[in-house]
Specification:
2 domains, globular
Amino acid sequence: MNSSTVHAYHAKNTVKLQLKESGPGSQIPFASLVTSTPELRDKHRFSLHPLLFNNVLQNMYLGQADFSKVHTVYYGRRIIESTYLPGQFTLDYHVDPEDPEVFAQRSLATQPENYPKLHPRTRYYTEQEISQVHKKWRENMLPIVLVLHGLSGGSHEQNIRSIVNHLEGTANVAVLNSRGCARSKITTPTLFSGLHTDDLRQTVQDLRSLFPDRQLHLVGVSLGGLILSNYLAEESDKSLVTSAFTVGAPWNLQSDMEALTRSVAGRYMFEPYIRKILLRVLKSNIQGLKANPDFDEQEFLDLYKNATHVSQIDDRYTCREAGLPSASTYYMAASPLIRIFKIKTPMVILNSLDDPFLSCNYPIAEVQRNPYLYMASTDKGAHYAYVDPKGDMWYSPVIKKYIESWKDIKNDRPDDGGFTVKQTKFKDVIDLY
């Protein structure tokens, strides 16, 4: 039997959430709400696929298996012009299925000129169709869940589709695609990094403006979880988000990069895989990147052929996207660990202790000192695979149950008893965001 166990960590007194029914006992501690989902309780045991008995097999299955016939969700894509950074990004709304012939006809009719063809069951929506989606959301009164994908992924990824599919009927769901991902087109030489939180910020502000009284939850996978965490820290007690849930999010990029090639599998499989992904993102967006006068196409082609480690790509491109001078300074600045005490939104953190992409030096001590956080670390699960005996992602129905557990909670700021953390000595200012 291939099983895993949950190890839960949280502050002794987590923030109190206001129940919709007023009166005595009208508050519930965040940890109590989380543990109303049995799968997130300390010492909970769950089964993974019996043939995928280690982290290598789990990740290989997620990357190589045919998921084309499962979680066949439909998306309507919206192109959004950024009000923070020049350029545009895309938001994919989970929408009702369409007849294949009708879908094909509408896809042709709404496809913008010189834009990439989208993944199966995804098409561009007109402004009128987007208004109809918003109208449906206003009428059904369900909470809203905004999902953030991992490095270079998007709404089409099997794990994202699994999450979205399981949330059917529980929440209104949209997936925020990072610039240049999920066959989106960049119109300015700006991609994304772990510090690029403004597209998320704008999307949250827009959704909160459209649905001011609705619960708004964030779900972030891998890099999406890192971006989500940095964003919540930046917003701190001004957060417009009800709660968050991360899966396989990095917390210390410097430590993670050092650990990536320590194992044989990391050195010969996982590091080359990440390197390939980053280079593919850059190459597929090269026409947009060339608008930057500092972009040297020949230098990129040389790096494309000769790069031997992902840090070389981050040192040349990612750090500059983030406005930093080197890969190492980017890794330190983009790590949510350094701003974890500024997170003042209830958040569940799911990480596996056999994650081959991360160092697994998770912020347990910090979680136990921040009453907004609840960590569920598991013995097995790989990065964000967690492939169960049915071939699905174990965490997808868990996220569904977690979102459902909020149904009796008011959409108010939690009571944190005045929680704050301040630096009292050696107060040199390091402006990280």
